[in-house]
Write a structure and sequence with these properties.
This protein has 4 helices and 11 strands; from the N terminus they run E-E-E-E-E-E-E-E-H-E-E-E-H-H-H. By secondary structure, the chain is an alpha+beta fold. Strands 1-5-4-3-2 form a 5-stranded mixed β-sheet, with no helix packed on it. Strand 4 and strand 5 form a beta hairpin. The chain is globular and about 55 Å long. The relative contact order is 0.13. This is DUF3616 domain-containing protein. It comes from Pseudomonas savastanoi pv. glycinea str. race 4.
Length: 194
């Protein structure tokens, strides 16, 4: 193996997952991988093998149908996940679908006319418009998805953000010019709404 590379070892029965990797997020020794052709997240454990080499193995698959209410909750459907992000402050793993239309693929055996017709047909798939968060908890040396957390750290975290937002508006209304330019980033406002 080349230096400064990572070897991903999937369950041999699910080896085809490696062909559609669309997003990756590392949390400690856990590597979350999304495949844009499935409704699952894959988890690998990160280990240093030798200097400059990393091995990711101990593959476990998490079906998102167990954690989310999807518009198309079939196991053979896809979400087309294009983004993963972990919020350390709240303990949530965020998932973003492609938010794109779906187009059929051309087939080598079909006529040009038929392929043009297939390629010109686009349709919406509800699962592709996903923006979701799933709680993540530590289990031993690794992390797992969970449906619910006992104490929602995000509530405390969001209260701090609301307090900061209120302070900014108070300073702005009192005419304090130093803080008038400081407004809460849009990502905070988006999270407050959720």
């Amino acid at each position: 193996m080349r230096k400064r590379t990572a070897l991903l070892r999937f369950d041999p029965a699910l080896a085809s997952l490696r062909d559609g990797i669309s997003a990756v997020q590392r949390i400690g020794t856990t590597l979350w991988i999304a495949n844009d052709e499935t409704t699952s997240l894959e988890r690998l454990t990160v280990r240093n093998a030798t200097r400059g080499e990393v091995i990711c193995d101990e593959h476990r698959s998490f079906s998102l149908i167990k954690y989310l209410k999807l518009p198309l909750p079939k196991s053979d459907a896809e979400i087309d996940i294009e983004g993963l992000a972990y919020d350390h402050g709240t303990g949530y793993l965020w998932l973003a679908g492609s938010h794109s239309l779906k187009r059929k693929k051309a087939k080598a055996d079909d006529s040009s006319q038929k392929n043009i017709k297939q390629l010109s047909t686009v349709e919406a798939d509800g699962n592709r418009y996903l923006l979701a968060r799933i709680p993540v908890v530590q289990e031993g040396d690794s992390h797992v998805l969970t449906k619910k957390v006992d104490t929602d750290a995000s509530v405390v975290f969001h209260k701090k953000r609301i307090k900061l937002l209120a302070q900014c508006f108070c300073c702005a209304s009192n005419g304090t010019q130093n803080l008038v330019r400081f407004f809460v980033p849009a990502k905070w406002l988006r999270i407050l709404v959720i």
